[in-house]
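pasting for the record
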Amino acid sequence: MSSSSSAQTSSRSSPTTSISSLPRTSTCPSKPKVLLFGDRSQTKYDDILRDVAEVHCLPRVGYQEMVPLIKAKVENEGPFVAFGGLFLITDNFPGKWDEGLLGPLAPHCKLFVGPGAGYDKVDVDWITSTGAMYANSPTQVGKRTADGALMLILSVMRGMTPQDHSVRAGKWRSPIKTLDWHTSTIGIIGLGSIGTRVATLLTSIGAERIIYHSRRPSPTAQSQWGYRSLDELYMEADVIVLCCPLTKDTRGLINKETYNKMKDGVILVNVSRGEVVLEQDLVEALDSGKVMRAALDVFEHEPTVHPGLLKNPNVTLSPHVAPAPDSMGPPMNGEVVENIIKFVDTGMPLTPVNLNQLKEAGF
């Protein structure tokens, strides 16, 4: 999250949008209008939202189909003060949130809430330019992604994928090297909500040597977790776990140059974004043995996966399902709706992303 706790505190005392300024409907003057992709989150928050707001819904369709639907909704039933996306893994859903899609909602809409922790496909700069807040829904998906990350970490350290290939090939107990998470140095890049939970889960099962790198030392990190520069983490870690957001600084972060700084036989786990890892460079590092094994839940050009990764038995491949998305919908979407409820009640959502940017832009 890009905003600091102090920025959030000051913004709560002076909300970007006060409820008295929210547009009211002529038929229901006490309720502001809210627009949703989808209709319900299937949580307790659905009825609460309808108690405090007039809720309008859109079908879950892709970007091109959605553009005229939003425009027509605003013209015929708007304006709307908040907009949220309710996502299910089986649904079509716009791949990007930008002015081309959301433009008709401005300038009246003062809150946009997206499903999930990441927002690299959201034009937060444009949203900020309209004087609106963007909020993500990181808590539930973050917990579940961390749980999936733990599964991948333990599996790849024990070499379960090559062991599986070995058994299927009729070879019993092939000589596959394993690592002990109790004594190995596990380096986590990105100690946000997901990285923190990963570190906490590892600590709970006895991992004693956890190091991490974030933009700055985390005030919520346990005392035994060691903060390192990136170069220090590369040099020390037996296992590197990527939990960082995709930004201009992290795109292509793991590449030929960084592998040269790592230990021989390092293990790589990625549950962040695929573009953080240059896949061709990873294939070469695996072929050379510099990287002993990798476990990947995300891919540089997903759903396409590099053929060199597909054929390598030392790579565990997971199709962006670390948070178990088939059952993730209700808790994640409930967090979207809860953000909107909090905004309608107080003028401030639970998990705003761009408060600092709004302040810098003079809002």
